[in-house]
Amino acid sequence: MTQKNRLSGGQIDPNETFSFKFDGKSYQGHKGDTLASALLANGVRLMGRSFKYHRPRGVLTAGSEEPNALVELRTGARQEPNTRATTAELFDGLVAKSQNRLGSLRFDAMAINDRFSNFLTAGFYYKTFMWPKAFWEKVYEPIIRKAAGLGSLSLEDDPDVYDKGFLHCDLLIIGSGPAGLSAALTAGRSGAQVILADEDFRMGGRLNSETHEIGGTSGAQWAAATMAELSALPNVRIMTRTTVIGAFDHGIYGAVERVSDHLATPEAGKPRQILWRIYTKHTVLAAGATERPIAFENNDRPGIMLASAMRTYANRFAVTADQRVAIFTNNDDGHRTAADLHAKGVKIAAVVDVRADAPSSMDYEVLHGEVVNTKGRLGLSFAEVKLADGSTRTLEAGALGVSGGWNPNVHMTCHQRGRPTWNSDLAAFVPGADLPMGMVVAGAANGDLSTHGALLGGAQAAKSLLGIKGRLPKLPETEDAPVNVTPFWYVEGASRAWIDQQNDVTVKDVKLSHQEGFRSVEHLKRYTTLGMATDQGKTSNMGGLAIMAELAGKTIPEVGTTIFRPPYTPTAIGVLAGRHTGQDFHPKRLTPSHKWAEERGAVFVEVGNWLRAQWFPIAGETHWRESVDREVLATRKSVGVCDVTTLGKVDVQGPDAAQFLNMVYCNGFAKLAVGKTRYGLMLREDGIAMDDGTAARLAEDHFVVTTTTANALPVYRHMEFVRQCLAPDMDVQLISTTEAWAQYAVAGPNARKLLEKIVDVDISNDAFPFMACANITICGGLRARLFRISFSGELAYEIAVPTAYGDALMRKIMEVGEEFNITPYGTEALGVMRIEKGHAAGNELNGTTTAANLGMGHMVSSLKDSIGKVLSQRDGLNADGDLRQVGIKPVDPADPVPAGAHLMNADGPVDATHDQGYATSACYSPNLGHSIAIGFLKNGSERMGERMRLVSPLTGVETEVEIVSAHFIDPDGERLRA
Amino acid sequence: MIIEHPLLGPRDSSEFTYMGDAKLIDRPDPEAETAARDFYEYGYLRDNPAGWHDELWFHEQGDRSWLVVTRNTLTHEISKVELARDVARARGRSK
Amino acid sequence: MRYSGLQVIKQALTGHKGWKPAWRDPEPKPNYDIIIIGGGGHGLATAYYLAKEFGQKRIAVLEKGWIGGGNVGRNTTIIRSNYLLDGNEPFYEFSLKLWEGLEQDFNYNAMISQRGILNLIHSDAQRDAFIRRGNAMLLNGADAEMLTTEQIKARYPYLNTEDARFPIKGGLAQHRGGTVRHDAVAWGYARGADKLGVDIIQNCEVTGFRQENGRCVGVETSRGYIGAGKIGCAVAGSSSRLMSKVDMRLPMESHVLQAFVSEGLKPVMPGVVTFGAGHFYCSQSDKGGLVFGGDLDGYNSYAQRGNLPVVEDVCEGGMAIFPAFGRARLLRMWGGIMDMSMDGSPIIDRTPIDGLYFNGGWCYGGFKATPASGFCFAHLLARDEPHPTATAYRFNRFETGHMIDEKGMGNQPNLH
Amino acid sequence: MHSLTSVTALGGTEPRIDTFDHIKITENDGVALASVAARIGREAACHKVLKKLLGAVPETGRAVLHDPEAGFCMGPDQWMIGAPKDTHELLADQLKDLFGDNASITEQSGAWVCFDLRGPAMEDMSERLCNIPIRSMISGDVRRTVIHQLGCFTIRRADADHLRILGPRASAETLHHAILTAALSTA
């Protein structure tokens, strides 16, 4: 028999056997096992190494509070570091390996640290490694970092997917022990929408671990029967393998469902885990309690574990850590472990109880005393006991169960403002008064440690929260033992007695922390790292607090408690991200001509989630500049077309529409004639330029406003703010219609000729002059909008049709444009043409520029109120020598003028105090045959013709430049009006 | 957090965009002699209380209403939610 | 007692009996020359420099709880000086230089580690902006380097460059940036200040200010009245609350910023990386935890905790660039309260009340500023004039229109 | 009659249909849309027209599933009207005639993509897609919500297993991908 420590009974399925590997060695376990229980069954006690001293470690617990038995689960890209063997559900073919070791687990070379532990006390690193100065980063820190960390990531992309989801209910029950099940029954029978969540893969909580009977059947059977009833209720949603990770504001809980972690790999298309956001009116927290250890010398050897964990292994998993077991306890609970193990045929070496009045037993020896030390290199062999009479005994045992009392799992009660309060009967913290909204705590989590107390508390909680009328049905008969505990935290004189096993914090470290003045709980925690390990201090915080209290001569509640923060247990980053990874990180927005552009081989660029064609390479072009230069030249020579759908569009309607725009734009709109378009500059209330665009008056009471692509959302929000909050009685209605219309710019000397072949109306220069706009029809009757506006500086139009026709319109334009050699152009060519025209765009409207900086100071109307007007008049925004937008060209046409470079005077130092300005946007102008830039220069409008240096030390460029007008092409705008 | 929208009922706060102090409704008179000072205070100074706070939230992923939410900045408790437009009207903001 | 490797050995061999408290626990005196309110990083640094650099005596730091419990103990430990604007860059560069000699200066190993910080670039416009910024850094005497995607990939081979929604087009690196063991900064300054005679008084909450003839002459505290020649407030996060006791309204809001740490992992992150197209930045601590963060929750809050949407947003950003982190687990999350100012930049200035000085508005840039903030505030307190690198951090800049707005977001604090 | 042919939001000439055992996902290309926003002081007049048009005024969070025109409430005094595209291509113009200067009408046909989810997995899928209390929503309930960061309308239709999603048309592919993913997840 390979599973030498497998007992009989339990809730595993002995008929289903799984093979698994740990550190390369094969073992067998059963369905229903965890990795930890299966390893124990096979006689494996040594499962890991501690963080600092690399002490050999085995399991301490049988649950998610486990500090020691951490493994790297699975291999390859699915390798998952720091996985608790105590919660990893066994599956056939599972592969795990131990971590944080140099060499094998048995012979870890880093264990040498343990020999030097006297030098490596709490906070030692703050006091040394400072000389010589350079050595910290070059010598000391690399060594420390190399030793740091526990498990390792594969550094391959996580191949699994994660879902997110949303659930709504009347009552969320966290925990499926007796209190949770009782609450679920009460609530479920009332018809309320109930969610019952438990982190375990088997519902029932400690009922599965204990031998108490409920109503004449075993607790486990009662739990199974209750689950069967609940499963049949359509209003109860049962969520196994689901950890509620946090209680957030207003009854929102985060929960992680491990859908596939018990499988070798997830099923195709299925997520590994799901993050549920649960919206609930009420919550019953029935998270149970965690047993706490007692600190004594060398209390960390493999085989030493919580007494309650021993019961779980024996009763649920049919496993014992060894055939010869001792118990050390300060309360009656430890005796239960002895009784249960004895009943399963395990030899009890003795029960050591610190209490003089401990119960005695016919089946095993009960000693009044303390365990003062242990022996055994890679696992426990002997426990040394000091008896109350002063004599000593050495107990031979391969496992030692320790019971120091129970701590209610109050974590979730603290996730908001709650602070637990001290209950001296239990010698433990229990939930305080200030609970998250709608929460009631029941059962052991509330300090009701008996099974009866849990059943009663759960039922009452559900009843009161849901306002269920009538009397509760009679609860089944069950155990109702009082708690009988004598606070006992550590054995007197113990020094290397572990409080926080993972982080290697001992009693001695806590004492040193006190000695050095780190006495507040938070200082203790931060100085010693107590409770900062992956188990979040679930088994260690109380011990540390108790010792600090004793040293400080205070009570435990006077010392306080550290704050419990989400998540309840460590949570995969992947599941918190859900599907928003890779290409799905953000949604994509495709323009109406996207498919057509793809067919032409366009290169796309991301702008505010839009994918826009950046340029359209043609055969033979090997560098993007070739394509862009060609597109620019062809547009300026004949005609080009560009998809400008992405510009934000806001439909502004109503009798007060013009008045409204007068308010949001710094320039005037009240008198804009119907059929006309005007450029508008919007300021923020602080007087800085916010956005620019055009407003076209299609009717007396109807404008279409455009915004820049990037600002579509904030501008719309701002306009709604002005409408609803500042001018609530203006009769104006706003609708964002960005996506409703496909809009294309047709630009170039032949633009009109081309469009005349499409539109159904007269668009001659007289009928449809520069800045005209109209609702028209095209192609024999399709409704469309036409604007004669130009970003390129050419004779240009923007034509819009309902989006569904966008693809067809683009193909039509290309078709009729063939005779003009029409060239589609992308955002790069668009950018070149706008720089050639000196139009400001995102790089210039960078949130710090004023209208004056942009050379548009004259546009801020003094005749009317508008947003930003008053604050735009502050001195700091109107100082002499302020920045002005200018054009920059290289003196030697071959030189670059990079954006982001700074302007310096022709002579003098090059440093920050002599900074004159900077280039914002730059490009190569194929029309001028050299690079050009626009930028901001101090007192720029007075410095035309000045020679300066444009320097970019970052990219190693320094160019002699001349300051010129930003209107490099057609400064008088003749082409626009042609 | 959940914001009890006066028209739509409980909505997750992640559907909203936050702007801050609802005093931003009280835009000063630009014609007043003290306009420069008034706008500076309006634009820049905040009570920033630790406790109850009237604040503006925009239902960006909802009905595009601006709301005035009375929320406790210590506990995040919400005691009142109104349409900002109603508040603006009640505060006498005319055309 | 001086800390050193020898001392550690000596103490280890003698049972660690000789270690003394890192700072005394004195009773407050009736009055001091200078009182600093706030025993966080900035307050302790101010006291330290007042005593060490400006020859001031009779100094006390009053802390309402335990020292280092505010943002110095709850940040993501990053130091850098990669700022753009004239008002900021010289100050943060001064700070970085102070960091570089700090441990030797105050005889405490704060594990200052210049591992480098890298801002990823994802668009041409962003590159232009980062070139401008990198140039501003160099022109101010800081270091900066533009890295190509290949150079970045060599350092972070598991960065997502293949299947990224926002492809990486390079990055702006500051190699002198890095991380510091945050708690140790508070403790190091506290110990250093204590050795110079500064009284560090914990559990002493200031409940009011006493004014006489328009001058602030002392503070009411939970431990009684304490008089002072000058009083400096350094309570970022709670600035508005404290200053409301003298009826001052500040140009700031208090916001919660969450931070996160993963379980301990073997080293994977050599330096600090900031994702330029999402809300995510990350480094790895000497203990092995991935330390990361992102955006503000976005609403005014004095509760030191946040909510799920931002947790998810940050993790989405993380997975977008580091898909290998999916199987690492988030261990702990917490929140700190930020003084979010109206232009994203701090204030170190006199108040309208004689004898009362203010330091705050650090947004989420306070940690890296700690040494310079302390130094400059000490300068102001001792000499009544601003330090040359902090001349722009004035209260009146909003009224006069001299904002220092790095991000260009205007008077909307949660966008800075 | 004009000479341009339209394409569906997913770029096809025919609507996309994805059929699984547990759900059928149909791109619905047949809906014309226009929004109606009441002008100040004309709310009552608008209600009258709506009642005439739909048989009832859609209440907040509700749709009136009337034939051929249907409508739902988008916000305060603001409604979305839908009708078969075949017969109502010029829906906005038709509504302008009906409402006169009582309301501002905006054509919305091009702004949205419409997907119909029908099948036993509809509720499970909804839970993975968006934050709506789908199991307590009844026929005619409408929620504006977020699906994969996209602002969408969800309408629980007359049949118990039918949910209609209106999402931003430019992101039709992203939305479709999210819906398909949820379908595979819940299979």
Outline the structure in words:
Chain D: It comes from Octadecabacter ascidiaceicola. Chain D: This is Sarcosine oxidase, gamma subunit family. Chain A: Its EC number is 2.1.2.10. The complex is a heterotetramer of chains A (978), B (95), C (416) and D (187). In chain A, 21% of the residues lie in helices and 28% in strands. Chain A has 978 residues and is of the alpha+beta class. The mean pLDDT of chain A is 96. In chain A, the strands form twelve sheets. In chain A, strands 8, 9, 12, 13, 14, 15 and 27 form a seven-stranded mixed sheet that branches. Chain A has a seven-stranded mixed sheet with strand order 17-23-18-19-20-21-22. A six-stranded mixed sheet of chain A has the order 41-42-43-40-34-44. The longest helix of chain A is centred in the middle third of the chain and has 16 residues, at 451-466. Chain B is of the alpha+beta class. In chain B, the strands form two sheets. A four-stranded antiparallel sheet of chain B has the order 3-4-5-6. The radius of gyration of chain B is 14 Å and the shape is globular. Chain B has one domain: Folate-binding superfamily (Folate-binding fold). Chain B contains two helices and six strands. Helices cover 18% and strands 35% of the residues of chain B. Chain B starts with a strand and ends in a 5-residue tail after the last helix. Chain C starts with a helix and ends in a 16-residue tail after the last helix. Chain C has two domains: 17-81 and 83-108 and 182-251 and 343-415, 3-Layer(bba) Sandwich (FAD/NAD(P)-binding domain), CATH 3.50.50.60; 117-177 and 253-341, D-Amino Acid Oxidase, Chain A, domain 2. In chain C, 70% of the residues are buried. In chain C, helix 2 runs parallel beside helix 6. Chain C has 416 residues and is α/β, with parallel strands linked by helices. Chain C is globular. Chain D has five helices and eleven strands, in the order E-E-E-H-E-E-E-H-H-E-E-H-E-E-E-H. In chain D, strand 9 and strand 10 form a beta hairpin. In chain D, 25% of the residues lie in helices and 33% in strands. By secondary structure, chain D is α+β, with helices and mostly antiparallel strands. The model of chain D has no long low-confidence stretch (mean pLDDT 96). Chain D is globular and about 50 Å long. The chains are: A alpha+beta (978), B alpha+beta (95), C alpha/beta (416), D alpha+beta (187). At the A-C interface, strand 6, helix 3, helix 9, helix 10 and strand 30 of A face helix 1, helix 3, helix 4, helix 6 and strand 12 of C. Strand 30 (571-572) of chain A pairs antiparallel with strand 16 (329-341) of chain C, so a sheet runs across the interface.
